Amino acid sequence: MDEIKASQKSMWKKFVILLGIVGPGLITANIDNDAGGIATYSLAGAQTGFRLLWVLFPITVALIMVQEMSARMGIVSGKGLADLIRERFGLKITFYSLLFLIIADLGNTMAEFAGIASAGEIFGISRYVSVPSCALFVWLLIFKGDYKIVERVFLAGCTVFLCYIVSGFLISPDWALVAKSVLIPKPTEIGAEDLPVVVGLIGTSITPWMQFYIQSAVVEKGIAIKHLWHSKVDVIVGCLCMFLVTLFIVVCCAATMHQSGVTITSAKDAAMALKPLAGDYSSILFAVGLFNASIFAAALLPLATSYYVCEGMGWESGVDKNFKEAPNFFIIFTTLVVLGALLVLIPGVNLFGVLIWSQVINGVLIPLILIFIINLCNDPDVMGEYTNGTWYNIFSYGIVFLMFAANAAMLYFEFLK
Amino acid sequence: MAIFEEFPDISLNFSDSIGTSITNESGKKIGKLNDYFVDYNDVYPVVLALQYKINRQLFYINWEDIISFSLNKIIIKDSFFVGRSRTYPKVQNKKVIASLLANQYAGETLEYPALGKIVLDRQVVDTHGKKVIRVNDIQFIKAGRMLRVTHAAVGIRSMVRRLGYEKTVDFFIKTIRPRANYLTKESLINWKHVHAIPNRSFQSNLKVSLSNEDFQDMHPADLADILEDLDNHGREVIFSSLDPKMAANILSEIDEEIRPLLLQNEEPENVADIIEQMDTDDAADILGDLSVSKAEAIIQEIDDKETQDEINELLEHKEDTAGGLMSTEVFEISPESTRSEVMEFIVEKHEEFENVYDIFVVDSNGSLVGTCSIKDLLIQKENLPIKNIMQDKDLKTLTPDVHWREVARYMSKYNLINLPIINLEQKLLGIISVDDVLPWLLDE
Questions:
Q1: What is the C-alpha to C-alpha distance for residues B4 and B14, in angstroms, rounded to an integer?
Q2: Partners of residue A386 in chain B, C-beta under 8 Å
Q3: How many angstroms away from the CA of B444 is the closest CA of chain A?
Q4: Which of the two ends of chain A, N or C, has the fewest CB atoms closer than 10 A to its terminal CB?
Q5: Residues B13-34 as b or e (16 or more Cβ within 10 Å = b)
Q6: CA B243, CA B239: separation in Å to the nearest integer?
Q7: Tens digits of per-residue pLDDT, B48-94?
Q8: CATH of B332-443, one of 2.40.320.10, 3.20.20.370, 3.40.50.720, 3.10.580.10
Q9: Thinking of the domain A40-416, which architecture would CATH place it in?
Q10: Which chain A residues are within 8 Å of B154, Cβ to Cβ?
């Protein structure tokens, strides 16, 4: 009797430990479905139907591997990714990498504000009202508010995207066809015009800034090395959740729009995918989800960027510090938010275009960051006995190679031909 | 020819000198300067050798073989000695006391890592400014025919220099604001305040010697802040070198989430030494965060049997109840003790208790029979036995299973500084003092 009790107790304890460690992976996967993400997935579904579904499978595998490496590095070294890049590759390489990343993240921040503007316009609110007020809200939230509480509200709001799964079942597409499209790769069917979509899909799922974010989150949580396994579970569960939601967004959009030949030019069109579930309310549902995801990422993304840039450059950082103590941190954050909001307000800017192309830039940058990550994961100075195995390396370099190939092909067909 | 004839400046920046070509007297190209080897035992380390690179392979040459040193060219003797190694073998000739690296013995040869590899772009501790900083550049000074390390550069200027934009940026700033601070003042940290932490791979043969007074003299709260800013490896290196008393102070001060990380690789024996320096309630908190097997192993190593039992008892209670909050070091007095005996007792033993504001009177069975505040004791002129001074009616007590919020409410209602905790048989188990509850209230 006592033995059963003891084993129950230890089972319970294991579960509690797991819950304590679960988090960084799940949160990271959730913010993956931000404004740029939803736009890209919707576009992929509407433009290509089920044809590119199989691409999601290798992307998810790659995402799991990348995030696992980042989380492992965080746990073993107790340092952020920017810290490690600086120590391993020196100031020059760090400086220029961070410069590119800031530019990419400015694009991403724009995308988040574009998402806010699009969501506002569905409700009939002018972007000249919604964007500045949200920018102000984000700034105040980070420097004056309690971010931890608001984070939970945002995370709860992310469950709106589960609607896509319900909607998917209501549409009831040809499931056999969906399964076949996911599982059987058809690389030969990718046309030149699909390449930006493919790179965008890669870039929006495996964003560079998120690798910095997950590693810092793991470090901040102070997870001990013996809980490495729990953190792997966290990453895998998070990525599979993302895969599921992504899959259903693409399927819904493919079934509702691709088959009837509708092309997406604005966020309003993308809301059609939720029509089977919400009918006339679909655009409201879509707008709420989009707004929540966008403002969440509009706060988190500039924050994460400011943190990792300061970390790499050796500057003071922290939301609890004042301007005098951490000037660079303040300047970077404020510039990203203000500039990101302003650029979206330039008259005549195509919001949907901003959403898609910012993700393509991510896709171009991510293999470079991946090379850093893989290189660091093989350095015994950093990882001790937890370096990558041979097969793991072969696999991850394979992923990098495929990404470069996709980028090169896209750049060739888009700009040279 | 004097070694620095071609180099008129007084000081030298690490980043400016890297890549300088090295040739021998006959003009044959040897390689390019890659890094420096210095004597870490010095307060201002002297350069022992230069590291150079050919075809991605690393070699070193001794400083004595250098004929001329300048930023354009380094000329060495034709008959120079080449060492083919990433590290520099340094024979130790004396025991070192105050030093950056190593605490070693005479005659032993140690492999020294290159200076740039362990300092440049790395986090070091600035013991003067009491913070963790990242080093952008290293400054040397000419001293006779030697070079010595004097400063670590940390400011924006050193960053610009490393990026290779010094001349361009200087030119622009000179045109816009000729008197800008940027041009004249560089953020430097005196080398005697710089504490570097060697990499994992160097750990086997080199240890940071922190017998250096700097760390032991620091306020535990400052050092705790520094440890919070460092990574796991750096924390372990510094923490494991502290004496148990300091380590105990650090553990009480440092962020709760970091505590288990600090202790994860320590031997149970060492942790026990640290735990013995702490109050039993703090000790129980820390052990409660560790795994059961690890905590047990540590408790077994505690020398004092009584402390062992007390901690074990505290661990039984939930952290957020009176039992978890209480300290078992209680100021206990028998009813027969006289006022003067108690005063003597306070003088002798006050260090063992968190405070001496209240005296708890306990009979031979360990049951609480009364309390007496130090005030009551002080205003009493006659040398009476304590049982005549103490208050024995309506004692304010709680049992160990009470939730901490109830404890706080109770202490606030009756204005208690110390609250005795008793079991159902009136036996005194421990006391909660007001500062045990405060952190919980603040976290609300």
A1: 16
A2: none
A3: 14
A4: N
A5: bbbebeebebebeeeeebbebb
A6: 9
A7: 999 998 888 889 999 988 888 888 889 888 887 888 878 888 776 65
A8: 3.10.580.10
A9: Up-down Bundle (1.20)
A10: 314
